[in-house]
Structures are given as C-alpha cells and as structure tokens.
Here is the input.
Amino acid sequence: MPDAIGYRYTGAADSLEDGTVLVECKVSRSDFLADASKPHRIAGGVGNWRYYMAPEGVIRLDDVPQKWGLIEVNARGHIKLLRGVYSDTNYLKRRERLVAMRHESETSRELFLLVRMFDRIEDPEKLVEIVKERNRLLAKLNNQERELQAERSKALDLTWKVQEMTEELGRYRDLHGVLPKITALARQVSTKPMPH
Here is the structure.
C-alpha cells in the first residue's frame, strides 16, 4: 500500500494533468534506501507522478530516481518542493514537466487500491455527507474571508482618512495656532406630539 495516492480525472480528452500522484514518505535514510531497491520502484508500480517526502536532509536530490519528485519537511512542519511538476509557476515549464516526469502506471493496481479504500468505508452515504459538510464549511470560510477582506479594505480607507485629517489639522495649527474649544450645544427634546 502506498503512503498516499491521489486521483485526478477531469474527463477532458487533452488534459495532461489527469492521472494519479503517489507520495512515499520516508523517515530515515535507511528507510529510503530499502524502498529504492524494490522492483516496483524501478519499473511498473502505481502513480503517474511520483514523489518521495522526507525530513529535511534525509534524501539528497541526486539520490532520487529519474522522473521522481522530492518534497522536504522542515522541523516546523513546513513543506518545500525540491523537484516536481509544480516546482514553479511557469505554465510552459510545468506542461513540459507533466510529460517528462510522467510514469506509466499499473491502472489495474490503482483501481484495486481505490476499491480497497471504498471497502474500508462502512457507510458510503456517510462519506457523501462528510464531503457535503466539508464543502459547506469551505464555502462558509470563503464567504468569511471575502467579508474580512471587505472590512480590511474599509479599515484601510478609514486609516487614510484619519491620516489626511491629521495632516490637515497640523496645517491649520501651523497657520492659526491652537484650535478653539468646541462646546456641544445641548439639543432640546420636544414633548409636543408629531403632526400626522
């Protein structure tokens, strides 16, 4: 069983990104060296795109087999892609790497893994409900993020207005000295009924 496998199928006839991504996690150099000698690491196996993930410094780039990617995890848990399809934002280079780093995978084994995953789910409807709830929470989070961004924008506008008023007040003081005190006029509340 792989440590992680992801399936991506858009259904588009010309999509270079459709396929499977395999991630093998290694916690030590000896673990990596033992794994690298397995027959399905050399030929065959699952995953159209394949990656090793390991703590920082455990695997060197020149140790990684051809067409494999490498993801490092630092002591704080942050990941860094050292080699792989999505190692930068250049669209043309990414398309080249999608083709250059693609492995021919054993589709029957990938389907078997997918069936085994579903077999572990006792109630498929529960999985559907979990996905729906996740999507609902994600939509709510996106809405809150948009609202927060709008509030930040308002706060920034107010900050600029306060700064402009402060500068204007400073210019007034330079010209006229100390500002006169402003006394608020008390508003009288009428007890007369309002006309209809």
Notes: Residues 35 and 72 are 17 Å apart (CA to CA). The longest strand covers residues 19-25.
